Automatic annotation (TrEMBL):
This is Aspartate racemase. GO terms for molecular function: amino-acid racemase activity. It comes from the Eukaryota. Gene3D superfamilies: 3.40.50.1860.
Length: 280
């Protein structure tokens, strides 16, 4: 029985988060759901009992880091099959407990079609899976409306940056139009990979780390190409605090914030005046 069944409240459904890639990313998304819920509920948030019901499953077998070889079926390391099996097992465990769920990893959305097929096999509606990718693309399209001069770009891991290959964000380029998109050079991918791996190893990046200076350099190069909106297409990158870089004219779209907003809109009820938040 789901928690929402116990409450008997159709406006307070249960949110599921599949984490583990990496563990901090799942915890970060959990925290963003809580913080955004408080903001959207406003003065109506009185106590712990007003918090949303959330099930977080952090599964180490879903963890990375990943390179292109890791997402190839039948690779010698067996990482593709291991990850898909772990994801299928986790879906079977979380589905009876929640009303909607997401996966707290951009790269794992390469399995989006398999996730929806697994839900059908379980007799569930595939729409209970809330795609971080689709939610982010919708947000980007909203930024394009009435602003035809805006230019987008994307920062992520090796898979999500492969916009001609297996990246789940290929559709973003197709839908906003190549004329609105700046592709970072190949050298950018290797630097981002080092940054992501450091976060996976240490849990964070600080301004004292060498890779922070490299990251700042990438952002400034992006700004020099007139990029106005950057999608942080790796959950580790959203853990980097860039508040000290105050002179950038880039707006960042954090897919974890976007999917947190989508999950809350599907599961909670808010005062109309508080529910105008656009996750960016």
């Amino acid at each position: 029985m789901k928690t929402s069944d116990c409450h008997g409240d159709s406006n307070s459904k249960v949110i599921g988060i599949i984490g583990g890639s990496g563990p901090e990313a799942g915890a970060d998304l959990f925290g963003k759901v809580l913080a955004l819920h408080r903001k959207k509920l406003g003065k109506a948030y009185k106590s712990d009992r007003d918090a949303p019901d959330i099930v977080l499953m952090s599964v180490s077998n879903l963890g990375g880091p990943r390179t292109a070889i890791d997402i190839e079926p039948g690779n010698l390391k067996g990482t593709y099959e291991q990850c898909l099996a772990a994801l299928d097992d986790t879906i079977r465990k979380i589905v009876p407990l929640v009303d909607y769920f997401c996966v707290a990893c951009n790269t794992l959305h390469m399995f989006e079609s398999q996730i929806r097929e697994a839900l059908l096999d379980l007799g569930r509606n595939p729409s209970m899976f809330v795609s971080m990718i689709s939610s982010t693309i919708d947000t980007c399209q909203g930024q394009l409306d009435g602003n035809e001069s805006v230019k987008f770009s994307i920062f992520g891991g090796p898979v999500t940056m492969d916009l001609d290959g297996n990246s789940s964000y290929r559709r973003l380029v197709e839908e906003v139009g190549i004329e609105h998109f700046y592709r970072p050079p190949p050298s950018c991918t290797s630097i981002l990979q080092r940054i992501i791996w450091k976060i996976k190893q240490d849990g964070k990046v600080t301004t004292r780390d060498k890779v922070f200076a490299e990251y700042e350099g990438l952002l400034r190069d992006m700004a020099s190409h007139s990029v106005k909106i950057c999608v942080l297409a790796c959950t580790e990158l959203s853990l980097i605090d860039i508040v000290d870089i105050t002179d950038l004219s880039i707006k960042f779209i954090d897919p974890t914030e976007v999917v947190a907003n989508a999950l809350l809109n599907l599961t909670q009820s808010y005062p109309e005046e508080n529910n105008r938040y656009l996750a960016l």
